[in-house]
Design brief:
Helices cover about 65% and strands about 0% of the residues. It is built from 4 helices and no strands. Helix 2 crosses helix 3. The termini are far apart.
Length: about 50
C-alpha cells in the first residue's frame, strides 16, 4: 500500500491500528511516525467526545 493509498484510506476514517496491520508494521508507532501527519483534527475529535 503506497502513501497515496494510505492517505485515501485515512480520509474517510480508517483506524491507525487497522492500517498498521494491513501495512505489516511492527508497531503502531511505526505507522503513526510515518502517517501521523495525515490524521488532522484528531485532537479536536477527542476533545469533542
Amino acid at each position: 500500500m503506497g502513501h497515496t493509498a494510505v492517505a485515501l484510506a485515512i480520509e474517510p476514517g480508517a483506524h491507525p491500528r487497522a492500517l498498521m496491520e494491513r501495512l505489516g508494521h511492527s508497531s503502531i508507532n511505526v505507522t503513526l511516525d510515518r502517517y501521523g501527519h495525515l490524521f488532522p483534527g484528531q485532537d479536536e475529535a477527542i476533545a469533542d467526545q
